[in-house]
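ok new one. same drill as before - structure tokens go in, u give me an amino acid for every spot. 100 of them this time. try not to just spam alanines like last time pls lmao
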């Protein structure tokens, strides 16, 4: 992968938000920063800014950037459950509302 950071940015800023805008799609988020939060939290195993300096795209290691691209691709292909990834991200942040 030539430049995984730029690929990650393209996927989270353009591709995923465009897919989310599809009328038939029921994804829990639509905005680029939400996709970035979900992807980064999940590749870090917790709130991303506890693991990566800000701005994240300038401080991603090659391995983390490649992991971010892989997770984006898994979301795009349906191999990763965006709803579950979002719930996990929100849980790490203490923002998961009980839906019982």
């Amino acid at each position: 992968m030539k430049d995984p950071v730029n690929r990650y940015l393209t996927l989270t800023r353009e591709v995923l938000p465009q897919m989310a805008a599809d009328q038939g799609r029921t994804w829990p988020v639509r905005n680029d920063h939400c996709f970035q939060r979900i992807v980064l939290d999940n590749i870090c195993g917790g709130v991303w800014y506890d693991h990566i300096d800000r701005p994240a795209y300038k401080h991603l290691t090659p391995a983390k950037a490649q992991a971010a691209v892989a997770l984006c691709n898994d979301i795009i292909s349906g191999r990763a459950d965006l709803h579950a990834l979002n719930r996990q991200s929100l849980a790490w942040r203490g923002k998961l509302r009980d839906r019982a």
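The two ends are 43 Å apart (CA to CA). and btw The mean pLDDT is 95.
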